[in-house]
Amino acid sequence: MSLTEPITIAGTAEQTDLQLRGDGGLRHLLTLQGLDRGQIAALLDDAESYLREPGEPVARSEALAGRTVANLFFEPSTRTRASFELAAKRLGADVLNLDVNTSSRKKGESILDTIYTLQAMETDVMVVRDAQAGVPAYIARHVNDTVSILNAGESDLSHPTQGLLDLLTIRRHKSSFDGLAVAIVGDIAHSRVARSAAEGLVTMGVEDLRLVSPPALTPDPGSVPPSAKVLHDLDDGVRGADVVMALRIQRERIANLDGIPGIDEYFASFGVNRERMKLAAPDAIVMHPGPMNRGIEIESTLADSAASVITEQVRNGVAVRMAVLASVVRSRAAR
Ligand code: CP
User: Fold this and answer.
1) Three-class DSSP category at 285
2) pLDDT tens column, 55-73
3) Contact 259, 269 (CB under 8 A)
């Protein structure tokens, strides 16, 4: 394959082909599309095994002893980058955090030459976040068989480990996905979190999935699961919901803010608050992937209330990333 080949967005079939080994084992994690209910449930079960009560010593293992994990974040991150680093260290790996701002990419080195450099240093897993759609699959096509690529956030397309940690958080609170009503609220159009969550929820059997956004932030119909409802009224979206997930406006991906309400208007129409949550199921949980803009997409006191599971999402993220790292390394060993 040519090194000057353009970066294109892989279809579901190609991504599935890339990310699964012949025996169904996970070689890369590029997307939740193409993973079946059993494969997702197995990752969630494995993640559960790494969870401990707050205050207890964290789970550790040597599953990645002798392995090297490189974090390559070409976009900002707090939660995902830190939790991949902790996850890899708790599994006994050597961890490299490439500082992109002081790397030779600033001198014009291509992304593939950067990848080949780290591959030559015997890196086993590369965790990649990039603003350009198609980058994780592009890298996965080029690395050799000893390297796994984990998508840590790809443009507005995909954030599969976020999707998994959201599923784990919902499962721990609701026991099952059967019969759940889930409302995802905010900038659906530009949200990779919404896409991965929606893909995972539909695969796990959620039939009442509501995507609630201002008209200017309506998702592209091709990105919406056929069974999901697209709504523009937050009260309708939240009514009877078991799970309400608020999203921030992805300003970094919006070239033209025309038609997007100002902050006060947005909070009044699309802010998830305690008053609106009275419309939801009595035991509804409130989620947010972070980073939060308190007072814009979510009321600050709601984010800190008993209904909020936002800090649990963060905690579950480390366990999910441990499960994914262990899975790709295990599948390589089983070849
Ligand atoms: N949820 C999420 O991806 O957060 P970070 O951008 O901080 O990693």
Assistant:
1) strand
2) 999 999 999 999 999 999 9
3) no
